[in-house]
Amino acid sequence: xxxxxxxxxxxxxxxxxxxxxxxxxxxxxxxxxxxxxxxxxxxxxxxxxxxxxxxxxxxxxxxxxxxxxxxxxxxxxxxxxxxxxxxxxxxxxxxxxxxxxxxxxxxxxxxxxxxxxxxxxxxxxxxxxxxxxxxxxxxxxxxxxxxxxxxxxxxxxxxxxxxxxxxxxxxxxxxxxxxxxxxxxxxxxxxxxxxxxxxxxxxxxxxxxxxxxxxxxxxxxxxxxxxxxxxxxxxxxxxxxxxxxxxxxxxxxxxxxxxxxxxxxxxxxxxxxxxxxxxxxxxxxxxxxxxxxxxxxxxxxxxxxxxxxxxxxxxxxxxxxxxxxxxxxxxxxxxxxxxxxxxxxxxxxxxxxxxxxxxxxxxxxxxxxxxxxxxxxxxxxxxxxxxxxx
Length: 390
Ligand code: SF4
Hints:
With 390 residues, this protein is α/β, with parallel strands linked by helices. Helices cover 35% and strands 20% of the residues. The protein folds into four domains: 4-78, no CATH class; 84-93 and 278-374, 4-hydroxy-3-methylbut-2-enyl diphosphate reductase, catalytic domain (Cobalt-precorrin-4 Transmethylase, domain 1), CATH 3.40.1010; 96-179, Rossmann fold (3-Layer(aba) Sandwich), CATH 3.40.50.11270; 196-264, 3-Layer(aba) Sandwich (Cobalt-precorrin-4 Transmethylase, domain 1), CATH 3.40.1010.20. It has helices at 23-32, 67-78, 96-110, 126-134, 161-169, 180-194, 208-214, 227-232, 251-264, 278-291, 306-317, 352-363, and strands spanning 4-11, 18-19, 37-43, 60-61, 84-90, 116-119, 137-140, 151-154, 173-176, 198-202, 221-224, 241-245, 296-300, 321-325, 341-346, 368-374. Helix 1 packs across helix 2 (67-78) and helix 6 (180-194) runs parallel beside helix 7. Bound molecules: iron/sulfur cluster (SF4). The site of iron/sulfur cluster has 15 residues, from helix 3, helix 6 and helix 10.
C-alpha cells in the first residue's frame, strides 16, 4: 500500500519553509484509519488537491486509493481548529528518582560493550524503555533472563530481598537503581517487622514497588488496597501494628484509608515522614491548582505508571474530562470538541519532551496561549549508586 504522506514541513520554491506542527496528530489519526503513513518534509510541488496548507499546520498528500480516509482524518482535526489556552501544571514530568534511574542505565551502558540487563521496566514509561533499548539495554522480567556474569540493573521500583538473594547467589554484577525514597519504605518495613509489628502496607497489588516492599517481611505484612479493605482487615494483635504506603498513591485516598485504620486500631503507628513521595504529592497539588480552570485535562504518561493514573483519577474526581496519553499520537480530535482550555501535566516517569510535543501539536490547530502554574520548586537530587558514580 502506498503510504500517505504527512508533511512535517512544507518546502516552498520561494520563501521560508512552512512548519506543520500538527503532523503527528494527523499521522496518528490516519494510522487509526488503517493507513500506512510517512511523515517528512514535503515540497509544494509534491502536493495535490488534497493538500491543506498553512494556518492550521496540517499538510497532507493522499492518492485516490486513500482519499476518503485521508479526508475523514483531516476533517476530524480541521473541525477542532481554533485558539486555545493551555494551563501547564508545574512540577510535572521526571522526578529525581526517575532521572537517577535513567542515568544509572546510561552510565552502565557507557562503561561496557556488553549488553546491560535491566530487571523490569527501569521506570514505567514506554518511551524511556524504547530509548534505552535502542541504546543497548535489555529488559527482562526476571533474573532467569539474565546470563551468568552479566550486569543487571534493578529498576527504580525496588526489589524484594529474595531477588537480591538470587542475584548474589549467581554473583551477578548488580547496579541498584531503586529510588532512595522507595528504599526508605523498605527500611521502615524491616524496622517495623523487626519490632514485632504486623505491617499494613497501603498500596496496589501487582505493582512492582509493592511486590518489593511486601518481600521485606512477607509473613508480617498485609496489603490494604482501599478504604473498604481497611474496614475489614483483621490482625492478630491490634496493639502491635504499623502502616506503610506505596510512594505513588493518591494523597487523598491514602489519607482516607489511614483514617479508617486509625479509627479501628488506635494503637496504629506510622512512618516518621510521609511515604507518598514529594514528587507524587507535588504533581497532584499542581494538577489540583489548574484542574478547575480546564475543560479537558491531559496527563502524559504510560498505562502502567501509577502516579500518572492517580493524576487522571484526581482530575476526574474534580469533575473534569481527563485522558492519559502515552504521547501526542494518542490525542483524539473528538476530545477537543468545544474545548477552549486544556490542563496539561505529566507523570513522574514521562520525559519532558513528550509534553513539549503535545504543546507544539496543539499549536498546529490554532494559536495557543500557554501559562505555567508552579506550586512547588523541586531541587532534590539523588547521588548515583557507587558502581556508576564516576
Ligand atoms: Fe522516587 Fe517518587 Fe520518583 Fe518514585 S515517583 S522514583 S518514589 S521520587
